[in-house]
Specification:
ABC_2_transport, 10 helices, 2 strands, Transport permease protein, cell membrane, membrane, mainly alpha
């Protein structure tokens, strides 16, 4: 019998198999189209940024932002749906599956999705000359870390609400601003100091800077261990928050 966490992963993979082609556009094609339109189109007007082409500068930001947005998308309606509409988590709770298995299995599912997605994106970017360093091969792992650090807190929120209208607020006031002001499209140093502080505490900014350091072969703004420590802190705090939310919702 498979471990409970693996069983939860298998459940999500089985459901995803039916939706694969429907999600292929957002998972694979949209980031590439966005990269071409912004990186090449807008980049032709922007010119070089930090001594590299705008295309090369924006590649790591698009990768990390795509992973972040996937993490948020997969832990809002799907999580609330499994509590409120399909009662999937309640069904799991009636089996030997534990709260930790539910959370870990769903996060593992997102990691399994983002790794090949990022690898395919890198392969396409190579054709456009968007990479400058062999360290680019570690970016899928960085994107996986962004997924885990971002998904767990949102899972905790989704487990605590009963109205999906709150997700509009989450998208509008958290996901979109974090994507716009986390160094994806322009350096955070150009922002006011208060906005810089907000960027520094977000998991996306740390993922963007680590990916950028890898693809460009340069040192990140902070030491690598500091960026990694911030992602770990989000993971630990988010894991506790998610576990508590699931336990409360399932009345454990």
């Amino acid at each position: 019998m498979a471990h409970s966490t693996v069983a939860v992963l298998e459940r999500h993979l089985t459901l995803y198999r039916r939706l694969f082609w429907a999600s292929a556009m957002s998972s694979f094609l949209l980031p590439v189209l966005f990269l071409v339109s912004i990186g090449l189109g807008v980049g032709g007007y922007v010119g070089d940024l930090g001594g590299v082409s705008y295309l090369q500068w924006i590649v790591p930001g698009v990768m990390a932002a795509t992973a972040f947005q996937m993490a948020v998308g997969e832990t809002t309606y799907p999580v609330l749906g499994d509590f409120k509409w399909t009662r999937g988590y309640h069904a799991m709770r009636a089996t030997p599956v534990r709260i930790g298995d539910m959370v870990a299995g769903q996060v593992l599912f997102m990691v399994v999705r983002v790794l090949p997605q990022t690898a395919v994106f890198l392969a396409i970017v190579v054709l456009f000359g968007g990479l400058r360093s062999w360290w680019s091969v570690v970016t899928p792992l960085v994107c996986a870390a962004v997924v885990v650090a971002s998904a767990l807190p949102v899972m905790g929120v989704s487990a605590r609400i009963d109205n999906d209208g709150y997700f509009a607020l989450l998208f509008r006031f958290v996901m979109i601003p974090m994507t716009l002001f986390a160094g994806v499209f322009f350096p955070v140093a150009q922002l006011p100091l208060v906005a810089q502080w907000l960027a520094w505490v977000s998991p996306l900014w740390h993922g963007v800077e680590l990916c950028r350091a890898a693809t460009l072969g340069v040192a990140p703004p902070w030491p690598i261990w500091a960026h990694a420590l911030c992602l770990v802190a989000w993971t630990v705090a988010g894991g506790w928050f998610a576990m508590r939310g699931f336990a409360r919702r399932l009345a454990v």
